[in-house]
Design a protein that fits this description.
7 helices; 3-stranded antiparallel beta sheet; alpha/beta; globular; about 230 residues
């Protein structure tokens, strides 16, 4: 069953993307992907189907396409975000507008799924991970980041919710996971942890969202479908 805040959350993010013609998160891939590039390239993804779950405005698609997967897919619940993906990427990526807990693609479709700066914004993260497990081929890999309370946004305008999550600015859902809780959730969805590292980085302001340069800290996991 979907979390009661899920539809409200989707609408809030979609409205954010629709407010500006500029990319909210910028045009460069999320910082830590460059450090993970040798590990991800060693997975041998050339010619294999891959997906970015929570593709947003496409900031990571250049990196995803560079991995050599074929075909490359992207999905997101925000039609406004998808509409802002640059044309060169749109021509080379199969895009799907959908809730990440209900992805309209067959079982065991993908050898690799990237999910970046998404997990902490999901009121129904457990359902989403089970859905990703469904569409993962045997032994498929997923890199994803999961912030804990050391991330700077955890102390900015957060309203506690009954489930342990928060609303940022009264409308955007966030939840922060300590390492043990994150590992437990990922393993319960049928994945095993291959590797994890903590990354910190600075980001420029985001239009209509955060108005100052800010610091992020996330634990980045590489997980593999185990069952």
């Amino acid at each position: 069953m979907n979390h009661p805040l899920n539809q409200q959350n989707i609408q809030a993010w979609d409205h954010l993307y629709a407010e500006t013609d500029n990319p909210v998160w910028g045009s460069h891939a999320i910082h830590f992907l460059h450090e993970w590039e040798p590990t991800l390239r060693s997975l041998g993804l050339e010619g294999k189907p891959i997906l970015e779950a929570g593709v947003g405005e496409g900031r990571n698609l250049g990196f995803m396409l560079s991995l050599g997967g074929n075909p490359v897919h992207g999905c997101d619940a925000s039609p406004s975000a998808i509409s802002k993906i640059p044309a060169p990427y749109r021509e080379n990526v199969h895009l799907h507008c959908c809730d990440l807990s209900k992805i309209p693609l067959p079982d065991q479709s993908f050898a690799f799924i990237g999910m970046f700066d998404v997990f902490e914004t999901l009121p129904h993260a457990r359902e989403v991970m089970h859905e990703l497990h469904r569409i993962c081929a045997p032994s498929a890999h997923i890199p994803l980041n999961i912030p804990d309370f050391s991330d700077s946004i955890s102390s900015v305008g957060m309203e506690p919710q009954p489930d342990g999550g928060f609303l940022f600015a009264g409308k955007f859902y966030y939840r922060f996971y300590e390492e043990e809780e994150a590992v437990s959730l990922l393993e319960s969805a049928g994945f095993r942890i291959v590797e994890s590292r903590v990354h910190s980085w600075e980001e420029e302001p985001h239009e209509n969202f955060r108005h100052e340069t800010h610091h992020h800290t996330s634990r980045v996991f590489l997980i593999r479908k185990a069952t």
